[in-house]
Amino acid sequence: MIIRLLLGDQLNSSHSWFEEQDQSHYLYVMMEIEAETNYVKHHQQKVVAFFSAMRNFAETLISKGCQVYYFKINDSHNKHSFEENIKGLIEPFSITAIHYQLPDEYRLYQLFKNFKSLFSLEVKAFETEHFFCSLSEIAELGKEKKYYLLENFYRYLRKKHQVLVLNDKPLGGKWNFDAENRNKWKNQVPIPDVVHFNNDVSCVVDDLKATNIETFGKSTSISNYPKSREQSLLQLEYFTTHLLPHFGTYQDAMHTDEAWLFHSNLSFAMNVKMLSPKEVVQHVEEYYLNNQDKVGLAQVEGFIRQILGWREYVRMVYWNKFNEVKSSNFLEHKKTLPEVFWTGKSKMKCVATCAQNSLDHAYAHHIQRLMVLGNYALLMESHPDEVDVWYLGVYVDAIEWVQLPNTRGMSQFADGGIVATKPYISSGNYIDKMSNYCLSCSFDKKTKTEENSCPFNSLYWHFLDKNRSKFESNQRMKMMYALLNKMDKKELSKINERAHYLIEKRNI
């Protein structure tokens, strides 16, 4: 009997493992273990969504005639270790070999590499067969500096996989329609409701309560995250039909009453591999080609860029630059993460709304993560280690390969520019431009130094002033430094004084 180990983010029913007619020689092993729940504190809904999907996948395999050994989190025989649990199966099942799919997280990749020295059995690794790029391909791409620019990487994959191209030229004459995807949503078009699966996860919640697993965020016995491939496909179809026609236009928008807007909410299903990025991109592209009267190219390209471009890009960065990114702190920030990230309470409407959404739903869309919460953590000089822990723990779709480059690189600029060519920071003006948050905020979005001035305003200019030596020569920041250099010295002094006060206060 051969063990085939499956991780919680390897729920790929289309993997070649399952194409074999004779499954009698294989024991599929899945584990809910504390080693995976406790490496950071996770949002309860994240843990529950993973366990629910894992349990459903195990049941599906059993229904198809596969042999499955499943360790639940509160099983008395669960040793809460991959190695120890496997050791306990070798003799009872006469195990002759251990097969596993290559983990997407570096720490597990290293752990599983050691299996050959831990077990006196054949140990063999397999590709996950999920991403557009294999690990060997991204290793090759990572050798060329040009592919660390997203646009170059994105165009390469568009051409290679013939996505929205004709004769290697982009449909519509442009590779990128980002300039058309920055509109504020002001009820111009109605937002369809999100898909409600209403999955009963009370048994998973009860199992967690019976253990010493420490979680945070809002607890719920009903989950709207998909637990099966069938639900994931339903979510994909719903997005394509109802949300995609306006996705691109409003993909950067934010609103107090609309947490999801036109976003797909497909990232969890893709990241646990119930959906493949290839089928998602193909489905969306085909829908566009067959329904050009219903959906425009800018909407479609904006979405595909997130999947084919950014998602694959950050994975390439993760595997090729892991050691550089993981320990980086380019700006030498050392402060604790403000309490609003854990409580959702702040006088700043934008920060409070985005933090509370995150705590309530284990979800926030990319602009909320980057330009509100990430922007705030950065300008408040939070230590990137603390920011990492929160982002990895709070979001249902957060797996380190996608979280680390996004947080450490894109959001906090801790990597010194591997991922982003400039820090993603803003004053209150950008947030007002893209949302309705400022309308109901107690702070004044227009002033910088008053007691009721928007904190983002003083924090933003303080950051630029403090980090002149690092960014003044950056071509993308020339305009902002030109404005800073024209600023009255007394005014700048007042700005810095207020920023220092806010940074030290932490809780605003």
Keywords:
5-stranded parallel β-sheet, DNA Cyclobutane Dipyrimidine Photolyase, subunit A, domain 3, Serine Threonine Protein Phosphatase 5, Tetratricopeptide repeat, 48% helix, alpha/beta, Rossmann fold, 508 residues
In brief:
The chain has helices at residues 34-37, 44-63, 82-90, 106-113, 115-118, 135-141, 150-161, 202-209, 229-247, 267-271, 277-290, 297-326, 340-343, 349-361, 366-379, 384-394, 400-411, 428-434, 455-466, 468-471, 478-486, 489-505; strands spanning 2-6, 26-31, 42-43, 67-71, 97-101, 122-126, 165-166, 169-170, 199-200, 215-216, 222-223. It has 508 residues and is of the alpha/beta class.
Structural class: alpha/beta
Using only C-alpha atoms, the radius of gyration works out to 24 Å
Number of helices: 22
Report the β-strand fraction as a percent range: 5-15%
Percent in helix:
40-55%
Shape field: globular
Overall mean pLDDT stands at: 96
Low-confidence parts lasting 5 or more residues at pLDDT below 50? none
Alpha carbon gap, first and last residue: 59 Å
CATH domain class of the largest domain: Mainly Alpha
Give a quick account of the main beta sheet: strands, pairing sense, barrel closure: 5 strands, parallel
Number of domains: 3
- CATH architecture designation of the largest domain: Alpha Horseshoe
